[in-house]
Automatic annotation (TrEMBL):
<feature type="binding site">
    <location>
        <position position="17"/>
    </location>
    <ligand>
        <name>ATP</name>
    </ligand>
</feature>
<feature type="binding site">
    <location>
        <position position="13"/>
    </location>
    <ligand>
        <name>ATP</name>
    </ligand>
</feature>
<keyword id="KW-0539">Nucleus</keyword>
<dbReference type="Pfam" id="PF13238">
    <property type="entry name" value="AAA_18"/>
</dbReference>
<feature type="binding site">
    <location>
        <position position="15"/>
    </location>
    <ligand>
        <name>ATP</name>
    </ligand>
</feature>
<dbReference type="GO" id="GO:0005524">
    <property type="term" value="F:ATP binding"/>
</dbReference>
<dbReference type="GO" id="GO:0016607">
    <property type="term" value="C:nuclear speck"/>
</dbReference>
<keyword id="KW-0963">Cytoplasm</keyword>
<dbReference type="GO" id="GO:0004017">
    <property type="term" value="F:AMP kinase activity"/>
</dbReference>
<dbReference type="InterPro" id="IPR027417">
    <property type="entry name" value="P-loop_NTPase"/>
</dbReference>
<dbReference type="GO" id="GO:0015030">
    <property type="term" value="C:Cajal body"/>
</dbReference>
<keyword id="KW-0808">Transferase</keyword>
<feature type="binding site">
    <location>
        <position position="109"/>
    </location>
    <ligand>
        <name>ATP</name>
    </ligand>
</feature>
<keyword id="KW-0698">rRNA processing</keyword>
<comment type="similarity">
    <text>Belongs to the adenylate kinase family. AK6 subfamily.</text>
</comment>
<dbReference type="GO" id="GO:0005813">
    <property type="term" value="C:centrosome"/>
</dbReference>
<dbReference type="GO" id="GO:0005737">
    <property type="term" value="C:cytoplasm"/>
</dbReference>
């Protein structure tokens, strides 16, 4: 059976991991967290002193994922999306969270002032939405609200329905 690949993107803290894991367990699709994948495989290329974090080796991440992406049925979670091959994804969801809610979530994560400010600005200026629109066809890019538990439930149900339709359309 053919299964679609789904990209979940958005500013850190908007709820990609929460949605991705729950969606995977309810759809049977595989969940891949690119941050975890990079950490496990040390897929890094240098260190960013300003942001105090390793720099992702995007080419190695793409190589690492290529086989499973061509098989299909993968949910990818990352706060960036312009380096994945466009052909990988059948649909792209950009999660959105209100600033005050996102601020609290990131504060709880122990982010320092600079990291907090940069991430809130990233959300205000819709950086990931712009990046998604610049990297994928407009008609496959969708924004999803991600403020409260009911949003999570709505998003899961909406995506499960979309998967069901996609599978029906691609069987025969
Ligand atoms: P991300 O993977 O985008 O960095 P996350 O899934 O780790 O984000 O979520 C960050 C925090 O927000 C975490 O404590 C769970 C919470 N959260 C996620 N989605 C939510 C929602 N729809 N309603 C309330 N809290 C949510």
């Amino acid at each position: 059976m053919l299964l679609p690949n789904i990209l979940l993107t958005g500013t850190p803290g908007v709820g990609k991991t929460t949605l991705g894991k729950e969606l995977a367990s309810r759809s049977g699709l595989k969940y891949v967290n690119v941050g975890d994948l990079a950490r496990e495989g040390q897929l890094y290329d240098g260190y960013d002193e300003e942001y105090d974090c390793p720099i992702l080796d995007e080419d190695r991440v793409v190589d690492e994922l290529e086989n499973q992406m061509s098989e299909g049925g993968v949910i990818v979670d990352y706060h960036g999306c312009d380096f994945f091959p466009e052909r990988w994804f059948h649909i792209v969801f950009v999660l959105k969270t209100d600033n005050s809610i996102l601020y609290k979530r990131l504060e709880n994560r122990g982010y320092n002032e600079k990291k907090l400010k940069d991430n809130i600005q990233c959300e205000i200026f819709q950086v990931l939405h712009e990046e998604a629109l610049a990297s994928y066809k407009e008609e496959i890019v969708h924004q999803l609200p991600s403020n409260k538990p009911e949003d999570l439930e709505d998003n899961i149900n909406q995506i499960l329905k979309w998967i069901e339709h996609w599978v029906k359309d691609h069987s025969s």
